[in-house]
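FORM 7B: Structural annotation worksheet

SECTION A. Query
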Amino acid sequence: MKEKIKQLELFLKSSNFDRGIRLGVAIAVPFALLYFLGYFEYAPAVVVGAVLNTPGDIPGSTKRKVNAILISIGFTMVITAILLFSKPFLPLLILVLTIISFVVSLISVYGFRASLVSFSGLLAMVIAFAVQKTTTHDILVHVGLMGIGGLWYLVVSFVFQKIAPKKDQNQLLSDTLLFIGEYLKLRAKLLTKKTKRDELLKQTFVLQNKINEKHETLRESLLTARKRSGRSRYEEKQLLIFVSSIKIFELIEAKYLDYKMIDVIFGERKEFLKASKKLNKIMGNHLIHLSELLIQNDKIPNKEILLKALSKANESITNYIETVKLPEAREGALVLKNLYDYQEQLLQEIRIIRRVMANVHDASKVSLKRQDSSQFLTLQEYRLNILTQNFSLDSTMFRHSLRLTIAIVFGYLLGFLFDIQNTYWILLTIIVIMRPSYGLTKERSKDRIIGTLIGAFIAVGIVLITQNVIVYAVLAFVSLILAFSLIQQNYKSAAALITISIIFVYSLMNPDAFEVIQYRVIDTIIGASIAVVANYLVLPSWEANNLKKILLNALKMNKKYLLATQELYQNPAIHKLSYNLARKDAFLAISNLNASFQRLTQDPKSKQKEFQLIYEIVTLNQTMISAIASIGNFIINHQTTPASDDFNLLISKISNNLQVSCDIIEHTEINKKIAEETVEDAKDKLLEKYQQLSNLRDENIRKGNTELDTETLHGLQEAYLIANHISWLKSLSESLKKATDRYRFTIVDEQ
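SECTION B. Predicted structure
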């Protein structure tokens, strides 16, 4: 019960509920004001204008948000006017419906914010069918009032932002810490859950994508919000939490261990890993708790449990050495020590977040130059040629736009021919449900139908209890606010609440509520069925065939990241910024690859071509980026020796393997090979360096010098990590080269 109360409190304090309240105010005020002024007949048009332009009100840069809403207002007004003027002429209406559906949906090629503006345009087109205006004067008045409604919503949004200016950023930071906490706990399970690793890895792909999406939005929101006069104390706090969350995520990524090697080293001695595993779980739970406190503003939890768990992890290294004995214990001890160092860094970042949230005045400040920070923003281009480049059946969005257009026109003609009472409900269901991928469309269709049935069932129960129009009005208003608040978190619940709201709105105009419920359910089922069938049969876009471009980008970004790490090893002070930028690009690229794989899993089994091969490629890319990050993280946090010629030669070999993988997919000329004998010799020399240090340490132990100084320890750690990770990366790159060759032969060449 206590947990449910806490979740309710988090929801009521969330920015999602805040946006629901904004919509409620944007609806209630015009209705009330125009009612008291005696112009109530104008209220519906104003409210429709407000509702239509809410999709563009998402977290991010204020400037981009305002621009999106203003463009959305213009779009919805023009589209509504065109539809209303075309309605009396069926052939013209069909033509207009086709053109608008296709052109407006294709705007989504300009990114997520553009897709929301596109959705507003499609929504305006559908709602125009419900508007009964025939004269030019009435149409222009209606469209003008819609524009006023859109501007009114923009004012409401602006006022709410001024009242709680950092609510969106706090929610994003909270969500980010929550996902990172869950991710850290998943990584803990990977240490010992040998038989469940494949399933756990698939779960990490989902979380990685969610974390990267949140980080991208936070970059836009926090980095573009900086003013020339500097940042306020609160902005400084948010930015510091954001930077620490990035460091924590990258540290987790950097410690993607060679689990097969771990299994070999520890064998039946997995108990020595339990302390590290427990520390990960405790830190993960602590991050989740901190994520809740960003919304609740409660007291920061005690840190003792964290420090105690860290101490236990350190003790496990000593216990392992005492049990196994040196020199046999050295390799396992270095693995545990590297793991401990990484967890200690994680804990440092968590403590920074704790200090910031506790308002400790001497907490570290963020030092970001304007020209440096701007390089971390992913800017969306809005050039016309981006649109023209997508005029091809090879474009996923082009195929989706054609598919959506056919589904909409078919849905309208079906309603027209069979004289369905509210045909636009079918169209509304199609545009809300239909997505470029079959899997997401099918999932949303299922949620929509189930949600509609639940909402209808609840509405029936209420209608049987009372026929009070005031109750209907209140329920319609409240359920709409809650639906808008939940639409991103729980689409099924949102669909149920939308159904309740619509049924009671229509019940205010139609005394026969049961008839309204019946039509709502039938039209939703028809619309959902059309959406699913169209996605399956009309120019289907199966993810296995769409992977090529995303995979190519991941390979190129991995190569760029590898070479940036090589430069970092040469001179960390000079190349740190370029390394960080390459790391960010690589993480985003692998996130897109993971997201593509998730969409593949949602496609019908018969369309999941070479599923295991694609899973292998995704896993190899993920493992490579983590191995590279592990090397980079060590270089940044330790005093290292100069990079050797052998290291550089192996980097060239790995880079060449990645380039060959790209060439294989693109059917371009294969790069020249580096002599394998030379590469093997370089690999042996790196391992030999570690062995020399290890032998020297053994000699000192035999002489009675058992104390291990920091310089020797770091030297051993560096030699061990570089030798093993470079060897690992070489093996991974060769496996990736073979996998991409099979991928081209079985999938790309067939297209």
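SECTION C. Observations
Residues 710-746 form the longest helix (37 residues). The chain has a mean pLDDT of 85.

SECTION D. Sign-off
Analyst initials: ____
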